[in-house]
């Protein structure tokens, strides 16, 4: 089967990309999704708080997803469900396995929108057996919210990422006792408002600078031993404490799922664990684009939508033979940033760039400055910048079109814990 | 009386302060009108949108996600959960269907937040 644009993944990134590709002239566009329905992770995120940027109202995850699913259904976009992409080549051939058997596709452009997966117990090296009752928070969320199973009654949550915080509230509402949220960092990695409405509202303690040192129980979790850590994450002697529980939820980070990207020889940035992309979201393989959580882990779905529209639009331009940028400059993160995206900007493109980054530390009243050599191209003041919140700053083409040197993005301001 | 409040109106999560003065509540630290409104609400009558799931029969999924269509008093969250847990519906269900009207006289309806087609 031949397509102008194939979108791999039918979550929020894939949905936005497919709609935008179709609307920009990729007449034959399809979405390939391995799950039984479109919507991705949003279907299990039944809480509200999505869509304030996009729709100026607060929606639940399924509602946010459905706004886009409806748009896909209105258009003539082919959707392959229960279909797993097995292979992609850099020549944009796609092999997929689904309920119709093995399928071979050929595309003019591809959008990678496979999302991310959760880091597991193995990745954080906790001592103990492998008893039942240890779940990734997102897995538990799916079991409760979509399959109708309550995974435990006495719960400890390790990691204070947003999914962990949301699950603390969710399990409490369903009658479980959440005894503590344990976070190894001195600050939470979740949003402030989630600490307030998911933990404080229900008097759930958040133990910062603490780790789960051991999981007890052989067949079923019986408890965990927690301990305080110093600023180098080493256990402080004499601080061990036992908490009995039947369930441990892990909310310890997400990893972009890039196995398919690598099959297509797309090179990855070790900082984001996603592809290197230019300002059109094009990877280093011409005609292959990347967006959403497979590119870098987001905290707000509205930002995924915004980024994925850029990918979809440019995938359509590429399919029509209208994406021919030649003049690029590199973009570097300053010392105070963990990473910055895109890694390069096409200067000869009227669309400019959407700069995204995360900070290393907390900064109060900082100024973000975008430089080329010593000249400031754009600056923006913030009240606060924290590592748990990605910042997006649009950069218009007229600001950058005449520059020669590379671009650096950094924060000016005092660190503050 | 002084109370510090974290705004939950959007992901920014501004830290606000509400001071009870002779001239009414003095609110500082907000960065938008929604935040100021939330702070006043939180100090006088704290409310939350409640989201959960209810049992559904004959659908492609065993549970249906629901929400209250407006905030309910914070201290009624668990009482409302008890009511929500009693509801059972039959597929098909459309997003926006009211599954429980005016839960415990809060003025809020419990509504479906997704479609659940019937199982074939």
Radius of gyration of chain B: 18 Å
CATH class of the largest domain in chain A: Alpha Beta
- Supply the number of helical segments of chain B: 2
CA gyration radius of chain A, whole angstroms: 22 Å
DSSP helical segment count of chain A: 10
Low-confidence stretches of chain A: none
What is the CATH H-level superfamily of the largest domain in chain A? Answer: FAD/NAD(P)-binding domain
Integer tally of domains of chain A: 3
Fourth CATH level, the homologous superfamily of the largest domain in chain B: CPE0013-like
Describe the structure concisely.
Chain A is about 20% helix and about 35% strand. Chain A is α/β, with parallel strands linked by helices. In chain A, β13, α7 (about 190-200) and β14 form a beta-alpha-beta unit.
Describe the structure.
The complex is a heterodimer of chains A (417) and B (120). Helix content of chain A is 22%, strand content 34%. In chain A, strand 6 and strand 7 form a beta hairpin. In chain A, the strands form nine sheets. In chain A, strands 1, 2, 5, 6, 7, 8 and 22 form a seven-stranded mixed sheet that branches. Chain A has a five-stranded parallel sheet with strand order 11-18-12-13-14. Chain A has a five-stranded mixed sheet with strand order 25-23-32-28-29, with no helix packed on it. With 417 residues, chain A is of the alpha/beta class. Chain A is globular and about 65 Å long. Chain A has three domains: 188 residues, 3-Layer(bba) Sandwich (FAD/NAD(P)-binding domain), CATH 3.50.50.60; 133 residues, FAD/NAD(P)-binding domain; 91 residues, Immunoglobulin-like (Sandwich). In chain A, helix 5 crosses helix 6. By secondary structure, chain B is an alpha+beta fold. The mean pLDDT of chain B is 93. Chain B is built from two helices and ten strands, in the order E-E-E-H-E-E-E-E-H-E-E-E. The longest helix of chain B is centred in the first third of the chain and has 12 residues. The interface between A and B is medium-sized, with 31 and 32 residues. Chain A: This is FAD-binding protein. Chain A: It holds the Pfam family Pyr_redox_2.
